[in-house]
Amino acid sequence: MPRKLNVSIGPEPFESEDARGLLLAQEAELAGVYPPGERFLTVDPAVFEEARARFLVARADGRAVGCGAVIRRDEHTGEVKRMYVAPAFRRQGVASAILGQLEAWAAQTGLRRLVLETGERHAGPVDLYRGAGYVAIPRFGEYLTSQSSRCFEKTLVPNAEGAR
Length: 164
Fold this sequence. Notes:
This protein is an alpha+beta fold. The chain has helices spanning 17-31, 46-49, 94-108, 123-131; strands at residues 7-11, 53-60, 63-72, 77-85, 113-119, 135-137, 149-155. A hairpin with a 4-residue loop joins strand 3 (63-72) and strand 4. The protein starts with 6 loop residues before the first strand and ends in a 9-residue tail after the last strand.
């Protein structure tokens, strides 16, 4: 029986050493699957300094094993970006926990809707998002012409505390 992971998730600077390691691992993995025009990894680090975004790192027994972000697109909509879990830690609830915390932050800050893009060659993330209540939507923004992009959205339940 596999041992239970001791996972903690918290905000971390987007440009921290552990964050960079996770993001580089994600980029390397995607480079082996999608051509350059089909990889949408650009995130302006300045958005994290302006409280328009939240970047989380998941740690298992102190080791950085996953990450994810929400970036505010407009007054009511955020976009989930840079979701990644190291292969050895997948299918153990890490991604679901990261996504849940991102959704909670988004609701607390007044966002009513989250959108995201993932690649068609990644069944795991598609299953994760559908299982979390996301529904397929037409491609949007920078993904409009990407034939390998699959886009999703979820309406958020307003936080009882209201927007902060």
